[in-house]
Amino acid sequence: MSISKIRGLLYLIARLLGDVNAVRRGTVGKRIARRIAGKASGRLLRRLIK
Fold first, then answer.
1. How far apart are CA 27 and CA 24, in angstroms?
2. CA 31, CA 39: separation in Å to the nearest integer?
3. Alpha carbon of residue 18 to chain centroid
4. Any residues with CB less than 8 A from the CB of 19 and at least 6 apart, and which?
5. pTM given for the model
6. What residues contact 22, with CB distance under 8 A and at least 6 apart?
7. Distance separating alpha carbons of residues 13 and 31, to the nearest angstrom
């Protein structure tokens, strides 16, 4: 197993743990909004830098 696959797996586990934590705390909506905002800003920056 390569380092990049292990890293990807660790990021996946971290994201799932964050989702579980948000459900426990009752902040799921806030987490979803931040995830959408992060993806949108990443796409915008990618277009500007290209």
1. 8
2. 12
3. 9
4. 28, 31
5. 0.69
6. 28, 30, 31
7. 16
Tokens standing for 47? 């277009």
Q: Alpha-carbon Rg of the chain, whole angstroms?
A: 14
Per-residue pLDDT of 4-38, as tens digits, reads: 999 999 999 999 999 999 999 999 999 999 999 99
Sign of the alpha-carbon dihedral angle for 19, 22, 27, 31: negative
Say which residue the tokens 């292990």 belong to: 6
- What's the CA gap between 43 and 23, in Å, rounded? 27
Alpha helical stretches, state H, the chain: 3-25, 28-49
